[in-house]
Amino acid sequence: MTSARMHTPNSSRFSLRHYIDKSMTRLLPRHCLFCLEKIHKSHEQNEKSEVCHYCSEQLIHNSRACQRCALPLKGSESHICGNCLSHKYYFEQVYSPFIYTNEIRYLIRQLKYHNKIHYAQTLAGLFIQQSKNLEDFRLPQQLIPMPMHTHRLRQRGYNQALELTRSLSRHFQIPMDYQSLIRYRSTGLQAGLNARERQKNVRNAFKITTTGRNSSLSKVQHIALVDDVMTTGSTLNEAARILKQAGIQRVDGWIMARA
User: Hey, what domains does the chain have and what are their CATH numbers?
Assistant: First the structure.
């Protein structure tokens, strides 16, 4: 099976999985991933949530963060962190409601490295629940999942950012574009690199496809890039730079957790 077929939103595989998920949700009671208590449906929760309301409230929220890059701030810092004051960034604002620790780290690592693809719905649901608490939260015209190089995509079998974007796109009724921006240069893992090494590692790693230049991107001015976790912001910034070169006026980041 080719990667294109694996990741086409209207593919038979995706439709079958969606049907099974809906059927199981109706037939079986859901229990919280963390406390194992039965989940009682509330108007604030996603219908497929695997985290109860109590446990979701106990997660470590990124409640006091830089208004630009969502870096958690200390008590004495202003609304903008030192890095954003001293560096040039191509993205406008990052929305990241959780700190990358404990339970959130567990969910993300299970999604990325242990084939728990359905956890994308759980993480997206938590993001949706907290979006009303994010300062100056603005909806874009289009959502783009952070691209993954084809070599790594073949190794993993799926792009976790695309799985997250599916749920967010469906909830907010915002179109998803997974074809216009691609990662055409294979890069080493960012983990373990310092900020300068991360910037160098992703330099010129992305490009706009012919499809993007001729159709999708030409019709929008405000895009949000979706990803699971952000550390220094180098990857997001490089992708935003390429999008700005293509004429996009505003690029935000929708990130599940901030490290």
Answer: 64-258 (3.40.50)
